[in-house]
Amino acid sequence: MTTFARQFADMFSLTIRMYREQTWFLSMVNIAFAFGLVLGFGYLVPDISRETALFLTTGAATQMIVTIGLVGLPQGLSQAKAEGRLDYFFTLPIHREAYLLAQVTFVALLSLPAVLFALVLGAWNYGFPLEVSPWLLAAVPLAVLSLAGLGVAMAVVSPHQQLTNALTQLIIFYVLFFAPVLMPREQLPWLLRQAALVLPPTYAADAMRATVTDLPGTHLFRSLAFMAAFSAGSLALASAAARRRG
After folding, report:
1. What is the DSSP letter of 183?
2. Which of 108, 2, 110, 125 is nearest to 53 (CA)?
3. Distance separating alpha carbons of residues 101 and 15, to the nearest angstrom
4. In the chain, where are the structural domains located?
5. Within a 10 A sphere around the Cβ of 175, how many other Cβ atoms?
6. Is-contact 234 149, C-beta < 8 A?
7. What tens digit of pLDDT does each residue of 68-115 get?
8. pTM passes above 0.85
9. How many CB atoms lie within 10 A of CB 23?
10. Per-residue pLDDT reduced to its tens digit, 172-210
11. Residues near 221 by Cβ (< 8 Å), separated by ≥ 6?
12. Which of 117, 129, 169, 216 is deepest in the core (most CB within 10 A)?
């Protein structure tokens, strides 16, 4: 095992032990959020069509990844920075990227129960079968990485915890109501449609729809390619931000 892999394994194991008492609670909160999205938004749309139900279900599953990558992770790191824990780990003789990757991996695994719950609940509640593709195994990790790197960079660069928290709340507001995640891109105004082309949640949602439904108009391999590019760029940004700190 290489030095980096060993350090990553040690940091991941330490992270699990640090949050072992909170893991079940955080998982239940995520599942409750998924429950509210799938059923709550469904109540707002009378006589919901099959296509709308598919968008809502896959969008809720994508929202769980967005919430973990762009809200839970940066808020957790921002709190660690405020308490001095982030600087402590950055002073250890380890790769900073190994520590950050351990945090990303932990929150990614934390999001999986809610992602699966949203898909199963939506399929059961709206009465449609899931058509799961093996490409889902690539879509979910790429979705997490494309978003989490931005979350890490935001937390490390932001000068204040309050600013980080405010930015994450704005992100959730945008993704819920103004991104093509819970709704088709065609329903958005022109400016938001154009903005969606350069933001990773768009491609995460498209890949989710392409791998678990038969909805037309999805572009799986294009979305995977964009998410891979976003992943490389966001992780490089997070690494640069971590190395500039101290």
Report:
1. S
2. 125
3. 11
4. 3-244
5. 25
6. yes
7. 888 888 888 888 888 888 888 888 889 888 998 898 888 888 888 999
8. yes
9. 13
10. 889 888 999 988 888 899 999 999 999 999 999 999 999
11. none
12. 117
| Token pair recorded at residue 127 | 């009465």
Tokens of 152: 């890490």
Residue matched to tokens 């950050």: 100
